[in-house]
Amino acid sequence: CTLHVPAGQTLGLVGRSGAGKTTVLTLLQRLYEPTAGRILIDEQDISQVSQDSLHELIAVVQQDISLFHRSIRENLAYGRPEATLQDIYHAADIAGCTEFIRRMPQGFDTVVGERGVKLSGGQRQRLAIARAFLRDAPIILLDEATSALDSESEQAIQAALMRLIKGRTVIAIAHRLSTLCAFDRIVALDGGRIVEDGPAASYLRRHGIGPRTANHRLSVGGGS
């Protein structure tokens, strides 16, 4: 089967565990090669481009954020080491990080500890979104970016994600259908195959998710 995602579209992937959602995102990042078929971005086979070129096109916001035992500033610049301080500050501000960073002992120079142990889950997620803003990639992959957070943190991250995905091509995994109320399209997978594909609003109505149950909130997760 073929999955075509037009530029600028927001696409939610749904399905049971093992349906193939994570596999889609993994293949898009070329973490392993497909055993059959091809993956094209802008009509170019990604197996024929360098990892660096692909890295410039795609930013990933995951559930489990990879942070290093370094400063907040260095962690934000990971993936774009040439970023200026002004670029870093701007990305942090858009992602809603500036307030909590300023409360840190050394601000942007605060060392976050192994895997960001000195930060809360919500703070780590917002740094991941700021990192994606700094990358300024045209394609965003979201992997359960708001899971396991308290409601206050989730709302803040939802707002940051809405700013991040605007005008970009987005592919997101969703375990809760209500998280896709603002998406353009939903694709349901089963056993690695597409079993449903259509407008998000129609899919959500068929499954009993409407404006009231969705509560007009976007809580996205990625990873397919």
Short description:
The protein is of the alpha/beta class. It is built from 9 helices and 8 strands.
Topology:
Elements lengths: L9 E5 L6 H8 L11 E2 L2 E2 L5 H7 E5 L9 H5 L8 H10 L3 H5 L18 H15 L3 E5 L7 H15 L3 E5 L11 E6 L2 E7 H7 L4 H4 L10
Parallel strand pairs: 1-6, 1-7, 4-5, 5-6
Antiparallel strand pairs: 2-3, 7-8
Helix pairs in contact: 4-6, 6-7
Q: Gyration radius, to the nearest Å?
A: 18 Å
The class by helix and strand makeup works out as alpha/beta
Distance between the termini: 16 Å
Main β-sheet: number of strands, strand sense, barrel status?
Answer: 6 strands, mixed
Taken from the alpha-carbon principal axes, the silhouette is globular
Give the strand order of the largest sheet, numbering strands 1, 2, ... along the chain: 4-5-6-1-7-8
- Number of distinct helices: 9
Instruction: Give the number of DSSP strands.
Output: 8
Report mean pLDDT, rounded to a whole number: 85
Strand percentage, roughly? 15-25%
Oligomer: single chain
How helix-rich are the residues, as a percent range?
A: 25-40%
Low-confidence stretches: 212-224
Order of helices and strands: EHEEHEHHHHEHEEEHH
Question: Which key terms come to mind for this protein?
Answer:
224 residues; alpha/beta; six-stranded mixed sheet; 8 strands
